[in-house]
Amino acid sequence: MKKIHSITFLLFFLLFQPFLTFVWSNTMLPQLHVEGRNLKDPNGNTVILHGFAQTYSPFFNEVGKYWSNYDVNGCLTYNKGLIDKMLSAGWKVNFIRLHMDPYWSNTPGCQGRYEGEECFDETRFTKYLDEVFVPMAEYCVSKGLYVVMRPPGVFPDKIQVGDVYNQYLIKVWKIVSNHPKLKNHPNIMFELGNEPIDILGTDGAYGSNGDAKFANLQKYMQVIVDAIRNNGSNNILWIPGLCWQQSYSGYLKYPIVGDNLGYAIHLYPGWFGSSAGYKAFQSEWDSAIKPIADVSPIMVTEMDWAPEVYNSSWGKSTTGVVGGGGFGANFKYITDNSGNVSWLVFTDAAKLAEFKDEAPAAGAPYNFLNDPEACPWQTYHWFKDYANPPVSTVTNLEIFDGMLKPIVNNQTIQISAGSNAYILVRATYADGRIDFVSSKANYQSSNPLVAIGSAGRISALKEGLATLTVSYGGFQKEISVKSNYFLLQSEAMNLTMFGANTFDNNSHTLHLTQWGQAGWSFPNGIDLSGYKYLVFKFGSYNYPWGSNIVIKDGSTESIGYKWEGKNELIIDLNNLVTETGIKISPNHITAVRFWSGGGDYIIDNVYLTNRSDASQETTGLEIPIIKSEDDIVDVFSVTGKLLKKQIRRGDAQKNLLNGVYIIGHEKVLIYR
């Protein structure tokens, strides 16, 4: 395995530059390229970049305080000065997102959309490309910064293949990619556009998800890529997704074709479920970003956070803690675990340039730059650690689940086959540091056909048993894994498909909010082709209005299966069909979900079977419900009368007469 470098390449390439061939001889930065899912340097090392952004307009440069009126020298002096101040302050950055702001290319006085193509003047753009953007890019490279150039403006709310904005981007990138100082420059990359939202799909509707939308998004972006490549330019290109650069999973089926391609995403507090804590954040990342991150490098080109009181960041949140609430710590943990995500802090460079690595005096209040709950303080120190990783002896290793509950050595955890369980690996060092090292730990499985481990997760592939060994710093821990399909446990279910739904592990009651959707998600896909039936057994004949169960393969959905007047539903897996009658193969199921107008379901059992009468087979892998005396349960008579409510299991049988009762969803015979 190649060592991952968060690079400060100066010394290394002073030593090795004679053995490298670069297009440009005036730079000490190595030329990067895309290889599989990673950025690579010429020696095959994986590279992850960390940086900041600049926008060259008076408004974004302290509202015209230092320059205005198309003052080229004033713009260059101001922005070069900010870079110098940042580097002098100790910021360990190695890339910049350079916005070719439409201030320079728009026709003065034009009444069209400022961020749009309506006011674009090709002559002005070409002039200021030479006078502003190219000189700034060259200066950045001279300071050891890779450059990601972004075109003027922002996508309109709705786009369609071949529209005027599509043609505008083609025009801009033909000019830029053919510029003699930019074309094939080893340290300059292009981000094709900023924040597309909805596209007209092949189904005739606008939207940001699904096959119909990505089939056309592929065409929209491919023609821009082709225009650049037809110029003979092989610069690395970063492709945006839909929904303000949050939606990417469709690119897996409809990829952009070519070499040196990655995907640029935006990520702010509240996006990707991040406001609901680590587990929701990780789950949404896995759904929207991980599919494409598994095959291509990712660059986060907008991201920041700070408490709202400072009014100094785009994103409003706190750093928080890994595995808990807040945004920043979980963002870093998730992107570190991906292993191929470059990212920047989108905070105003003028603020970052004023940073001092000094905590406030005792009793003094925090400010935006020195508050550990805001992004400048944390990213400054994280970037330093990326550039020069601290070295110390590990003195302890701990493992937690996705809710920060400790996992003790040899503890058994239960995972639905085809899904993931999140684990957080934490090391304590001799120098007193405590850090999450999930991305650095080693994972070995005793049965990799059943379950495997990777950075921060256990992936269950099929039903069975396995032991996962997690090793780091001379310590190792073992986790016993039992994998079954359709576990009736809240932690094994996806309760936020739509709405804030809940599942009670004791009563097996699934509660759906109005129009709620919940069930099981299988990010890895599960193959059910070896079974005849999927069977649901319910504890009541009552059910919410509109109840149905849908089976999904990616974005392809089956009809809604219903069970009116019954307490069971038997789904024939060999005859799954969509509403239009298209057959769905059971060999790659990604979700099984409940949907209704809202209400409760009591689910006794869910199982797969090959028996002709749809009865349950004995697999030897049945997982007993682990009961505790401290569980809170309800007690019913066999006729359904509630006798005791929300009582400790250990106290549930007190004062009951001999007979049969339902205690915590289990039949119990009392005979004294």
From TrEMBL:
Keyword Hydrolase part of the UniProt annotation: yes
GO biological process terms held by the UniProt record: polysaccharide catabolic process
GO MF, one annotated term: hydrolase activity, hydrolyzing O-glycosyl compounds
Keywords for the protein's UniProt record, in alphabetical order: Glycosidase, Hydrolase
Transmembrane segments: none
SUPFAM superfamilies the UniProt entry points to: (Trans)glycosidases
Domain (Glycoside hydrolase family): residue spans on this chain: 88-303
Domain of life: Bacteria
Cited InterPro entries: GH, Glyco_hydro_5
Name the UniProt record assigns to this protein: Glycoside hydrolase family 5
